[in-house]
Amino acid sequence: MGRPEALPTYDDATTATTPHPWLHRRQKRKTLRVLGAAAMTYLAYTTFKIATNTEPPISSLSIAKLQEDHAVCANLRHQPVESGAHRDHNKRWVKSTKPVLISNATIWTGEPATGTSEQDARAGKGWGWIASDVFTDRGLIISVQPSIKLKDLPHNTEIFEANGRQLTAGIVDMHSHAGLESLGNLQSDDNELSSDITPYVRSLDGIDPLQPEFESIKSGGVTTSLFLPGSGNNIGGEAFVLKFAVGPKNGRTEISQQDLIADPDRTWRYLKMACGENPKRAYGKVGERGPFSRLGEAWEFRHALEQARSYVQDQDDWCAKADTVGVDKMESYLRRDLQWETLGAVLRGQVRVNTHCYTIPDLEAFVRHTNEFKFRVYAFHHAHQTYLVPEVLKRTWGGTPAAALFADNMYYKVEAYTASERAGAILYAHNITPTYVSDNPVLNSQHVVFEAAKAYGYGLPYHAALAGVTSAPAELLGLGHRIGKVKSGFDADIVVWDSDPLSAGATPVQVWIDGAKQFSEPIELKKPLTPAIQPDTDLAHEYTTRIARGAVVFTGLSYSHSSFVSNGADVSQKHSVAIITDGKLACVGTCTSELAELEATRSATQTINLKDGYLTPGLVAFGSSLGLAEIDAESDTHDGPYVEQGTTSALDGLSFGGKQLMRAFEHGVIRAFTAPGEGGIDSRGVSVAFNTGAKNALEEGAILYPELALHYPLTLAAKGGKTPSISSAIGLLRSQLLDAAVDGHTEKLNTTEKAWLKRVVTGDSALVLSAHSADTIASIIRLKSQVESASSQKIRIVIIGGAEAHLIADELAASNIAVVLAPLLPHAQSWDQRRGLTGPPLTNVSTNILLDAGVDLGIGVEETWETRDLGLLAGIALANSEGRLSFDEALDLVGANFFNILGLEVSKSDPHDWVVWEGSPLEIGGRVKAIGGVGSTTIWK
Ligand SMILES: *[C@@H]1O[C@H](CO)[C@@H](O)[C@H](O)[C@H]1NC(C)=O
Ligand SMILES: *[C@@H]1O[C@H](CO)[C@@H](O)[C@H](O)[C@H]1NC(C)=O
Ligand SMILES: *[C@@H]1O[C@H](CO)[C@@H](O)[C@H](O)[C@H]1NC(C)=O
Fold this sequence. Notes:
Helix content: 25-40%
CATH superfamily of the domain at 677-686 and 705-910: Metal-dependent hydrolases
Protein name: Amidohydrolase 3 domain-containing protein
Domain Amidohydrolase: 460-515
GO molecular function, one term: N-acetylglucosamine-6-phosphate deacetylase activity
Organism: Didymella exigua CBS 183.55
Keywords: Hydrolase
Bound molecules: 2-acetamido-2-deoxy-beta-D-glucopyranose
């Protein structure tokens, strides 16, 4: 190879910039180009000056520099070539890395069986998991075949026994900002916000290889990522494809940015662009600077590309002339300008553009730009509206871009409000590639494979979902011949999983990068060996919903939650039935007499035959902003911020009928316990419990508990206003509670905060405190005992957040404080969460530590969109519980436990509180079929 090191960006950056007399004129010429016709008189003057001046003769130009410039012409004309040629070794291979035999694995190679037609492959035929061994050496996968004999391998080969576990290629996340923000987000280097058009900056310059998230991301099986600048700028800068092996402990020789680069040949370059809300918000200033609107953004793009086009033309003209007349006769040097160099390379086809673009106007304008300036865009990122306009995408110059998506993170801003969970499936059906990305830290890249898993659950074929985090992004990065598959000749980036990677809770057992093992003492969960998922093509079928009145009989129940089995119902046998009458659960079990009665009375009945049916109570969203905030970034769609003084009651701010509530309801989350606030776990005021499917607050059954519990924030969000520190916030709360404890009077006005504090100290109401830090939690434990000794009553405290609760689990249990984990899987998004556990193979599991200590637990969410995934989150806790949780107990983490920890009566007796599912609610692919209601049943078919 050799050539790519000489790509302009790198040698431009190192070329000595000694000013030359010619530069002065060049600048004038540039100015002229900008001023255009209006400056013609000036042009005449300049020409005259040049002609009459005592110009240095041509020979005064440095021949050496002219020749150097001429050599650059070859680079400018170079078209990147992905070498599929046989490699003797991987250039990233470190010689101390020994050969490895991974034996007895169940392998997803990333390709269909040989001989599968393209059409069949697209339709999902010919794909499968194969029982095989893998042998790696010199940083490459050497062979993938069953029964590789050790005697045929080098004597120093290390053996890894996979014991039948699933093995895939390393996960590729093509949208990450890892390493650009420091632990707890204290520092950020992801956006160069000095100007809207910064093609000349490079993400690599800000990447800190020592960020702890490199290790935790890799512990999710992610081996390679595209590290993009942020989306604050229309043109944000160059991106880099890096691998997550850092320093000697990961089998590298040094800790450096350079050592992370995935392709030492640097075949391709990458550029980040962004459309829409972000650049407008970052720059638009009336009368001062744009872009103020999408109109201005289109101009910013076109104007920049116009500069690049003329830059390219100048260079091409120079090179052509130098070729013709001979370089020593050239009267000027080759034009070199770092500002436009990267965009020039884009127009030369050397750079893979990745563009953050959500909406139809953004996508369509960008597609026009590609046609006007003739450059490719490889993927639209965020791309939440691409599923609506596949034909627009197909008009992109140079080939249809892929869509880099989240599975179900949506509604957080206007641009994301029209998103669909089925986007991936729809795009795939239109021959457009969906890939799944984290946008770390927006989602934790560690769990990007969970995005692919959910996409499968939402109807994307299984093989396409898995490709969406392996071979598809690899190909989009121009590295499809090297990474993303388990195939001889590919980089030895390999993950052995403890279960099917597209199942809830799937966790790597070990990860290799370039053949080097990444975890020296991996923590492995005790999980039974489970077969890979049998892809369910029915998931592609989108349900429609309707309302049923009268009797509905569900057959084929294989599970019913214990709360329904009290009346001697028999669900131990398969083919159990559930009978629903006017939305009420009337019978569960064999229901022989009830069925006979229905038959006898010839009641209008419909029967729904379930394949693996589940009957559960409704799931509960605790502490989210469901019903109070619809679009996170738009305050007009919120009830509003909590106030520091007085008591706000969430009931007064509820709005029904939003998409957030609808999605929660459709996912079986039919109860929401919501507290005042604008999202996140930090609330202040009195929460409400309500039905997510209700039409308004006055509808029968809409409100379960108008006043539920008193909430206070004690995370970093507590700092501000009257309590600038955590200590002052705790101090104020303590004195208020102690006041309430010693104050004998019962308040007349029961809606004041004082009255609520009184309810707390008398044990009539729970106090819900948001906190992540183990030290804040310690203060809360102390506060609880102080108040209890003052009032001689037990008080009820619930902590929401709890990233560091595992550090103080025994003390929490001893003081009877319940914890609602939100998020379930923390990733140090704030300083007070930095000691949260990210899970195996790197750390133990937080839920398990808390369960072992005997802490009462629930699972909440940090962001409203996640409420739809509560079942899956409980599934993750179950899968990783090593037997600590039964199925019912896992379900209760997002249900009955909230009633218990708040001291409410479990709504066991509510005959409307039930959900029928097809497939397990705790597994990918489980879907809601019916939900109880007052007088009617909502059915999905
Ligand atoms: C492969 O692993 C499975 C599951 O642990 C085990 O039953 C089987 O005996 C193993 N096969 C070999 C050849 O070791
Ligand atoms: C407030 O008073 C009303 C009416 O007396 C009562 O129904 C309600 O439960 C009280 N709320 C609290 C928080 O004490
Ligand atoms: C994980 O938990 C096990 C069992 O409780 C314990 O022995 C081990 O030290 C823990 N490992 C880490 C890294 O905390």
